[in-house]
């Protein structure tokens, strides 16, 4: 699920025509960290980082907890 969320953020950033420098200006997150987040399959960002990035592209991160007895896709 994390990879999909990051991919969606990158896709949104690119669709908006924003560069990593634009996201850095909005979030204060270094371009090298943003690049690693977008391209490193082992990236492990904090929720704060994801929320700041999402806000910079006009999105919001939503986390939902469900009982594990209920079927769900993409479980942790």
Mind explaining what this structure looks like?
- The chain has 76 residues and is mainly alpha-helical.
- It has one domain: 434 Repressor (Amino-terminal Domain) (Orthogonal Bundle).
- Helices cover 54% and strands 0% of the residues.
- The chain has helices spanning 2-15, 20-27, 31-39, 47-56.
- The longest helix is centred in the first third of the chain and has 14 residues, at 2-15.
- The chain is elongated, with a radius of gyration of 13 Å.
Give the number of domains: 1
- Biggest sheet statistics: none
Q: Supply the helix-strand structural class.
A: mainly alpha
Q: Encode the helix/strand succession as letters.
A: HHHH
Q: Could you give the topology of this structure?
A:
Layout: H1 2-15, H2 20-27, H3 31-39, H4 47-56
Question: Any key phrases for this structure?
Answer:
single chain, 76 residues, mainly alpha, 434 Repressor (Amino-terminal Domain), 4 helices
């Amino acid at each position: 699920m994390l990879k999909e969320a990051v991919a969606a953020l990158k896709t949104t950033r690119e669709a908006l025509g924003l560069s990593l420098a634009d996201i850095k200006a909005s979030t204060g997150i270094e371009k090298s960290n943003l690049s690693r987040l977008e391209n490193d399959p082992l990236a492990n960002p904090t929720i704060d980082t994801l929320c700041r990035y999402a806000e910079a592209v006009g999105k919001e991160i939503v986390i939902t907890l469900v009982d594990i007895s209920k079927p769900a896709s993409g479980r942790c």
